[in-house]
Amino acid sequence: MRIARNLSELRAARAALGPWLGFVPTMGALHQGHVALVTAARAADRPVAASIFVNPTQFGPNEDFLAYPRTEEADLAKLEAAGCALVWLPDVETMYPADGASRIVVGGPAERWEGELRPGHFAGVATVVAKLFGQIRPSHAYFGEKDWQQIQVIARMAADLLLPVEIVPVATVREADGLALSSRNRFLTAEERQTAPALRAAMVVAIERLLGGMAVPAALAAGEARLGEAGLKADYFALVHAHSLVPLEVVAAPARLIAAAKLGRIRLLDNAAVC
Length: 275
Hints:
Number of domains: 2
Strand content: 15-25%
Largest sheet: 6 strands, parallel
Structural class: alpha/beta
Helix content: 25-40%
CATH superfamily of the largest domain: HUPs
CATH class of the largest domain: Alpha Beta
CATH architecture of the largest domain: 3-Layer(aba) Sandwich
Order of helices and strands: EHEHEHEHHHEHEHHHEEE
Shape: globular
Radius of gyration: 19 Å
Oligomer: single chain
Strand order of the largest sheet: 1-4-3-2-5-6
């Protein structure tokens, strides 16, 4: 596995990998969900590159960029064991040079939900991902479905800008009790960790009710109430069009249930296909 820390090293390493390349962008603090992305990319019988970069532009003023976990040594070991051919480790100055003057403006699937709660977040995500695509030049890029809205924003951005990369979603990896793997989970207390699976449980029940014919507003309200009873405070619990993220008033394919809830100081995100 080759490690590149500057653009010269990256260009030399990338040139040796050929035109077909899978890519897994990450912010580090890797877990089995990230490993699953590398595994999915390798299954396509092409070399895989990953990046580790904690992107400052996707953090809001009340979000602690400096507190995000940095575990480079452990991350590199996981990527090497998973079969990564190249890891790109840029610094902030490389990604955002002092004379840089361009930033991507996003709309469409970025406008609601996380986009409303975290102003500027998706502009930061789209900008850094576009830069990484330009540096790595992958043919395919792999993203976990846990951050469903993020995938739709990136897919829309890639399509709108005619970027020659295929966006490949990979199913969410979960703990045995249903909790979606996330770098945030390490900050849950032992008691909160016992409570956290209530988010997934509420979603499962809501989907059963929706497919059973319950009216959408009633099913969603019951889901939020169930979260409250478990000790979680919902930021949203919504049925949306899977790609535009527009709220749905009736169940119609392709539909996705998306949810975010606070548990103590941690925000949990999850989603699931409905039909």
